[in-house]
Amino acid sequence: MKHFISADQFNRENLDELFDLTQDIVANPSKYSKSLEGKIVSVMFFEPSTRTRLSFESAILRLGGKLIATENAKTASSASKGESLTDTIRILQGYSDAIVMRHFDVDSSKVAASVANVPIINAGAGSGEHPTQALLDMYTIRESKGHFDGLKVAILGDLKYGRAIPSLLKLLSIYDNITIYALSKEAFSLPEEYIELMNKRNMKYVKCNSFSDIPKDVDVLYHTRIQRERFEGDFGKEEFIINEEVLNNFSENTILLHPLPRTEEISSDVDNNKRALFFKQAVNGMYVRMAILAKLLGKM
Length: 300
Ligand code: NCD
Fold this sequence. Notes:
Layout: H1 12-27, E1 40-45, H2 51-62, E2 66-70, H3 73-76, H4 85-95, E3 98-103, H5 108-115, E4 120-125, H6 131-145, E5 152-156, H7 164-172, E6 179-183, H8 192-200, E7 204-208, E8 220-222, H9 244-248, E9 255-257, H10 278-297
Parallel strand pairs: 1-2, 1-3, 3-4, 5-6, 5-8, 6-7, 8-9
């Protein structure tokens, strides 16, 4: 794998391999502390970020690599002077051994990869894909459930503009007998293209109108924030809020995930509940990103 731009690049084998490597990095971090020795990674973020950018940066440093970074690339790089993304990439590849990039265009990582001679890692592309997020989601599910086949997963919140969900659906589609329950306000319903994708890949899709349409023994509740920065107008607040009472209506084996940042959709009274795994998810993100970097660039 040269570039890392879509969840579609994964299958059962390479996903298992990546997660086994992640597990080994968690267990034996010192074994990997020089994996990126002598390497420099560019970190270019054209959109805001806390977890993705800082966990990538921490991952690079923990692997013994160095980084050069622009956190406000939209205004602080030459993009603000009209430089094309492809020109920017052609420059960065002369300075670094890989480029981690978040960009507002859906096709940005494909465009970057089309000219790059160093690996491009997609750290979020508009409302298109966010494959490293989906990987850390899947890693957290594997840690807690131990398997993927047969899982029942409820997706909630902004299913229209969010980019974590499309990548997650693609990774889940690798497995057999997956059922997706979707609960959102009408304005944030899952776009038709993802319903078609699920049909094609033999996933069962159930559109829900209330929490009671989601089975009590659902394995995963995956909530997301309304992506207010991606549309004009006001569709109001989230209607389907998960608080302790709502969570307690589900089985004690149901886990609650969220890519974060959360806004109103998950209330803080669930934070200490052992089934609320979103903070764990964020830590897992750093280890999964270490595994991705080690695989693409590392001496192992
Ligand atoms: C997500 C993103 O940027 O798409 N955040 C993240 O990377 N953890 C989700 C979001 O912003 O709502």
